[in-house]
UniProtKB/TrEMBL annotation:
GO terms for biological process: daunorubicin transport; doxorubicin transport; response to antibiotic. It is a peripheral membrane protein. One of its GO terms (molecular function) is ATP binding. It is found in: Cell membrane. It holds the Pfam family ABC_tran. It comes from Actinacidiphila yanglinensis. Its main location: membrane. Belongs to the ABC transporter superfamily. Drug exporter-1 (DrugE1) (TC 3.A.1.105) family. It is an enzyme of class 7 (translocase). NCBIfam families: drrA (TIGR01188). This is ABC-type xenobiotic transporter.
């Protein structure tokens, strides 16, 4: 068995004439967080559904926890947990009953203890005996994830787990993801939130229109996009003029009295820039360094900003 938790190669899927996955390849290391980013309709859920044995691929090989999804469906299902868009929470049952039902379905030994531990871990003890229909969105998602953890799956698929959550609940979910990974669980996450992928992931792939347009660590992806620059703001047009002439490759904004200067962003190049300003006896009222973030990467790769994607 390879050390990869998931290995996908040449994965293709079409609905009629519409090609949704056009031959994608990636590997997910055991005990890591792997994020798939992509705009609406890029094919993220389709990819998760194939890996989770809920959908058959047209071509390609998908191996999950050492088993081929095409031939060893049961073994794959016994190794994974899926949470997100196909939420399993039954609203008529209480939180405790939902968890107990899952423990019974998965034939977990000492199911009652597991349920108690999960209620504690997810801070759901107080509401454990209330109908889950009365839960807030954040509580329902926590319950959904808790249900996924019954039976301790090795690999967990989280399909957009924090969409619509308030910042505090998002942070709670992030904390739980980190704990799971520290315990050796592998997490496959799909998200439209770049900051989420940036904070949590060991590796990220960007899916657009059925193809992987980039993959790497968050840092590697950010490095693919040139754009570290220093922004200077001056007190008047004279200073702006002088600085623009002295600093090669800079772009000026006369309204804002600002200058954008390309820079490596390291201490030596910043010192050289300040020396140049000193030599010309110019004082910048403001000085800030901007490094590209995943939003810039996303824009460069897909032609869309994440805000546009979320607003769709
Ligand atoms: N059962 C289906 N029949 C036909 N087309 C489908 C079916 N399921 C998905 N599609 C299409 O496949 C494409 C990819 O869908 P998918 O749900 O995988 O995208 P996604 O990246 O998960 O998007 P979202 O973020 O909106 O969930 C979309 O264009 C969708 O309309």
């Amino acid at each position: 068995m390879s050390s990869s938790a998931i290995a996908v190669s040449g994965l293709r899927k079409a609905y009629g004439d519409k090609v949704v996955l056009d031959g994608i390849d990636f590997e997910v290391a055991q005990g890591s967080v792997f994020s798939m980013l992509g705009p609406n309709g890029a094919g993220k859920t389709t990819t998760v559904n194939v890996m989770a044995t809920l959908l058959k691929a047209d071509a390609g090989t998908v191996v999950v926890a050492g088993h081929d999804v095409a031939t060893a469906t049961k073994k794959v299902r016994a190794s994974i947990g899926v949470t997100g868009q196909f939420a399993a929470v039954d609203e008529l049952l209480t939180g405790r009953e939902n968890l107990q039902l899952m423990a019974d379905l998965k034939r977990v030994r000492s199911g009652r203890d597991t349920v108690t531990q999960l209620l504690e871990r997810f801070d759901l003890v107080e509401s454990a005996d209330k109908a889950s229909s009365t839960y807030s969105g954040g509580m329902r998602r926590k319950l959904d994830l808790a249900m996924t953890l019954v039976g301790r799956p090795q690999i967990i698929f989280l399909d957009e787990p924090t969409t619509g959550l308030d910042p505090r609940s998002r942070r709670t979910m992030w904390g739980i993801v980190r704990e799971l990974v520290a315990d050796g669980t592998t997490i496959f996450l799909t998200t439209q939130y770049l900051d989420e992928a940036d904070h949590l992931s060991d590796r990220i792939v960007v899916l657009d229109d059925g193809r992987l347009v980039a993959q790497g660590t968050p840092e590697e992806l950010k490095r693919q996009v040139p754009g570290t620059h220093v922004r200077l703001r001056f007190g008047g047009l004279d200073d702006l003029d002088t600085a623009a002439r002295a600093l090669a490759g800079s772009t000026r904004d006369d309204q804002e009295l600002t200058l954008r200067v390309p820079s490596e962003g390291d201490s030596r190049s910043l010192r050289a820039l300040l020396d140049t300003l000193d030599e010309h006896m110019i004082n910048a009222l403001e000085f800030s360094v901007h490094t590209p973030d995943l939003d810039d990467v996303f824009l460069a790769l897909t032609g869309r900003t994440s805000a546009e994607v979320v607003a769709q």
